[in-house]
Amino acid sequence: MRLPRTSPTATLPTVRAFLRSCVVVLVGLTSLPAAVRAALVWEQDEITLSAGPFDEEAEAEFAFTNTGDTAVTITNIASECGCTVAALDKRTYAPGEKGVVKVVFTFGGRTGRHSKPVTVSTDEGKETFTRLHLTVDIPKLFETPTAFVLWKVGDPVESRTLAIQAMYPDKAIPVSVTSRDSHFTATVEADPDNPALFHVSVTPTDTETTRQTAIIVKTNAPAETPRVVTFYALIR
Amino acid sequence: MKTSSLREALILAVAAVAPAGLAVVFHPDLVDRRRAGLELGEVRLEEARDWHAEIIWIDAREPETYATDHIPGAILFDPAAFDRDLGTVLAQWTPERHIVVYCGSSDCDTARELAARLRAAGLDHVHHLHGGWEAWLAAAAP
Lengths: 236, 142
What we know:
The complex is a heterodimer. By secondary structure, chain A is mainly beta. Chain A has one helix at residues 8-35, and strands at 40-42, 46-50, 57-66, 72-79, 84-88, 92-93, 98-106, 112-122, 128-138, 142-143, 148-151, 160-166, 174-179, 184-190, 197-204, 211-219, 228-235. In chain A, 12% of the residues lie in helices and 49% in strands. In chain A, the strands form 4 sheets. Chain A has a 5-stranded mixed beta sheet, with no helix packed on it. Chain A is elongated. In chain B, helix 5 (110-120) links the parallel strand 4 (99-102) and strand 5.
């Protein structure tokens, strides 16, 4: 059976109608952002800070302006971590009014780069929210390649050594070490060739049964910001 | 002319698809569908369950959320008390065990950060759960 041939000109009106629809849809889409534009305009939604070696928290202020024609109320501010607290002076902002969300991130022993999101919801429309990020680089006072030493049950009773690199040796270095369990003894000494490098040697009294204890290395960090390095000794 | 164009298009399509098809047949290990879209160190729940190993689950959410519900046996881990809670994990740990850290959902960073710190502490086989607690709930839903 032969199908009837379609003339190319017969399809032109259809193509034209399709193209016209595309133009209408495109124009509609480009005008959409203006129609639903958020009234709160943020100066920045991400702030990155570098902390000092003894800092315990970082604080940032996210500034915004209500550029809309009506008042905007911030209905909720949420952070995923109890370590991050966000605060506002007030909730409702008149047209043209400026405001600030203050975010405080308490490090609590964290080191390295941490990014803490804060979600700000407003009554501008259904599910209108802005995600702010406070990113902080928290320096390590001490670099340690591992946090534990391990013996297997029945291993020879011999020492294991842990290294501690003081990253700010002019501010804090290890000075003493203690074991919480008398089945382990520990000593700390400086590397003869590198004054910023320290070696902690741990020795069990035996390896007959599974055990675990914390090895605490005290440092000469200032009394108001004490720092210890904690290791674990395990027999498994 | 139309037939020849169609034939050329078909040849091009086959030439493009054939190498991928052969790779799936001869190197299935290179095409792990479950790993698609995952970050380094991230694991999907179904993959973790396939390990047939006893997993140490670590809950990196807030204590109040943990108290409401958590994965059975999961250890509540406060990143702010890392040294203390590392001891709790090590008490259950042996070198062959896997550790999976989770937080609320894919939107939270806490599990990823904590897993990285545990790896830096010298632990192997440490992962963070794709989708977090929400993925666990979805899998448990009837």
